[in-house]
Each structure stands twice: as structure tokens, then as C-alpha cells.
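Weekly modeling sync, notes
Attendees: AB, CL, MP (scribe)

Item 1: holo prediction request
CL wants a bound-state model with NDP before deciding which constructs to order. AB pointed out that an apo prediction alone won't tell us much about the pocket. Agreed to run with the ligand included and paste results into these notes for async review.

Input as submitted:
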Amino acid sequence: MAETFDFDLFVIGGGSGGVRAARVAAGEHGARVGLAEDDRYGGTCVIRGCVPKKLMVFASEYAGMPAEAAAYGWDIKAGAFDWTAFRGKMTDELDRLEGVYRKLLAGSGVETFDLRASIKDAHTVALSDGTTKTAKHILIATGGHPVRPDLPNAELGIVSDDILHLETLPKSMLIIGGGYIACEFACILNGLGVEVTQYYRGAQILRGFDDEARGLVSESMCHSGVDLHLGTNILEMSQAEDGIRVKSTNGSERSFDQVMFATGRDPSSKDMGLEDVGVALGRKGQIEVNEYSQTAVPSIYAIGDVTDRVNLTPVAIREGMAFVQTVFAGTPTAMDHDLIASAVFTQPEMGTVGMSEEEASEQEEIEVYSTSFRPMRTAFADQPDRVLMKLVVSKSSRIVLGCHIVAPNAGELIQMVGIAVKAKLTKEQFDATCAVHPTMSEELVTMRTPTRTA
Ligand code: NDP
């Protein structure tokens, strides 16, 4: 007789990846699905990541608008920014979105448990109310969490999760780190009127991205008022009367109202009983999976940031969809992690897909088409802003290997270029595309002569 389980699928984690897998398995494949989430539904992206971050980006962008509007003939007076009013509205919006997530699950017939879950054995989940549930398949989608460096008094500093809970915005803030989160929040808080200092231990922020693009973002951030110190890290921190006293590797000692660590995120895989049942974990605690997101225990799968592959919301969602295809549609589907476009929501934004110039030139001979200029809109307002449009092209196959854009709305632009780069179109096919004029991105189809070869 076939073994019977309480569920066909039990999902641990109600973030973007887990919710998508649960509702597609239940709604489209008729699977009996349970899902446990001990925090808020929507996970990092909706509750404390992408969504509130983007709303804060929008809020911060108004800072420069009165000056620009004046150049266009408008008499607009800049007023003060009301954090309390904005935060209240943002909190309401996040509550609304969490409600949408809960509704989607209920509407697909997923049974939800607002509890913490751990793994008891290959087919059993233990819930924090003391009950257990059995399932033919278990999917772990518990995401990640920010980490503080190993430093005495590190708890004096906050992490990105805490920003939304601040009662007031500090007058001054030190941000530690040079990755996505550090740079995005440096720009946001600078725009909202906080005096932002940023320490990054390396030679240039946004390690791993195209050098020319990171250089322009860094220059623009400094120009807009972020006090960026490269090759600098925090050494010691302590509570002082005038704020948090920080000693740094450059010999300086200064006080800040707040210190934020944006020093990376770790997979949330601890205390779940994973090792006990034979699920293999990597050095950072990431769950090791094969191309079908299956762990060392065949009935247990894992998707999203807890697997530390490409830590982006749309990737977790697609990994969830591929898991459902594999397990419930009978079509083994591996997630394609190649050529994923992404954006860093700094000001200006950086949009990128494919290889950087440095990465590509290590692999083959390339041509680089690159142009940096003052865009019409801000040049008219006498602002010094510059944008970058850059293509990295294979000399032999002519395929566009990478595209890097630093410009307002680069995230929107790179989504479109991402299609062409993913389709492995050649430089000549880009050139055969007629320009849309006058736009910034028309440069992507009008650059005729290589800036350099490498
Ligand atoms: P990142 O890994 O991007 O950056 C971490 C930064 O902290 C790096 O600059 C790193 O330096 C530095 N760092 C690490 N340890 C220390 C230390 N002990 N002392 C000082 N500095 C340290 O992590 P984030 O937290 O910024 O973001 C996590 C992930 O979330 C990203 O990788 C991305 O996948 C995702 N994300 C995506 C966003 C988007 O798509 N727009 C937005 C936000 C996050 P070093 O470079 O030298 O290692």
C-alpha cells in the first residue's frame, strides 16, 4: 500500500520563492500543500527589502527636484521631509501587500501555519506548537538574514532590517560595506537629509560589477554628498555621550548618531535540524542543492537565498517554478542562472547584464563600446550628472557579452537589453535596430567605433 502523508508538499518559508511554489503546486497541479512562516508573509523582498527600499528610493529622489524644476521655469519651494508620515504610509502599503500574499495562498488552497518549522525526518516537519506534519516533499525557502561583523559592541549598530523601524531619522549615519545594500541606503539616506559617511574596505565599491560603471556610481555618490571612504574599515565602536564612537583603520575617531552594517547576508538554515537528517550545508550555512534544487535527501528541496546561488527575488521565484515543474508536472526543469539582469538602486541606478569588461577580457578578445555623457534633462538644469552606456562585445562571434548602464531608470532599461543579451544577439543586430530619439539609451544602438579592444 502506498504511504500516506498529510501533504504532498510542505513549504517552510513564506517569502517570494516559497509562496510562488506553494500556490502553483496547489492551484495549478492540485497538490495538497502546507506552508509554515513564523514571521510576516512576503519575506525579505516585500517586508524589509526590495519593496520598502524602492519606496524609500522614490521618497529620496524628491530632494533634487525643486532645483531641477526651477531650471524648467517652475517656482517650487522645497519643504521638509516628514519621515513619520512617509513611514506610516509605507507600513500601510507593506501590510496591504502581506494581505495579498495571504489571500493568494488561501485562494490556491494552501493551508498556512503561522509557526516556526524544523525538519524531523525526510518526510516530517515539526511545528513550534508541538505538532508534526508529514509530506511527500519538503521545500525549504527560508531566505537569508543580515550579518554584523565579528566586532566588540557590534550590536550598537543597526542592519538594513532595522531602518523601517526607526522612530526618527538620525542626523548622521555611518554605513559599513560597499555592496548593493550599503550603496543603495547611502544614496537613500543622503537624499532624505541624513549626513552619510560610508566606509568600504576595498579599493572601489560594488565589487564584481564592471569597473567603469562602479567608478561612475562612486563618483556620482560622492558628488551628491555621500562621504565615501575607500580602503577604510571600522576597527572599534563604543557608546559615547555624543553618539556611537567609531575608530577606523584610517586612524580617524568620530562619533555618529547611528552606524549601519551592510556587510552581507547569510542563509537562514540554522537550528532547523537539517544536518541531523543528512541535508548538506556549505561553509556559510547555505543548503547544497543540485540543478533541480534537490538536497542530499531526495524528498527535501531548497530554493532562494538559503541556497546562496544568485540571491535575487526573481531568481527565487523561478527556482520555485522550476521545482514545481520538476516534482509536480513530471518535467525535470533546471533553473537557468545564466545572464540574469539586475539593477542596483543607487542614484544614479546601475543596470547590468552579462560579463563586465574585466571578466570578458580574461576569457576572450573583446571590443568595448562605451560612452559617458551629460543627459539632456539634467544638463539643461546645469547639473553635472553623467550617464554611462556600455557594451562588451566578443571580437570573434560579435555577440554582446555584457551591457552596463549607469543612468536614471537603468533598472528599467536593463530589463529590455537583458532580452537581447540573453538571446545572444550580435553587435550588428543591435546596430540594425533604429534609434529612439531623443533618448539616453539610443546610444546603445548608435555606437559604431569601439572605444577600445582588450
Ligand atoms: P554584498 O555581499 O553585496 O556586500 C557586502 C559588503 O560588505 C561588501 O562590500 C563586503 O566587502 C563588505 N563586508 C563583508 N564583510 C565585511 C566586514 N567584516 N567588514 C567590512 N566590510 C565587510 O551584501 P549586501 O548585504 O549588500 O546584499 C546581499 C545580497 O542581497 C546581494 O548580494 C544581492 O544579491 C541582494 N540584494 C540585491 C539588491 C538588488 O537587486 N538591487 C538590493 C539589495 C540586496 P567585500 O566586497 O570586500 O567583500
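Recorded for review: The radius of gyration is 24 Å.
Action items: CL to compare against the apo run; MP to circulate these notes.
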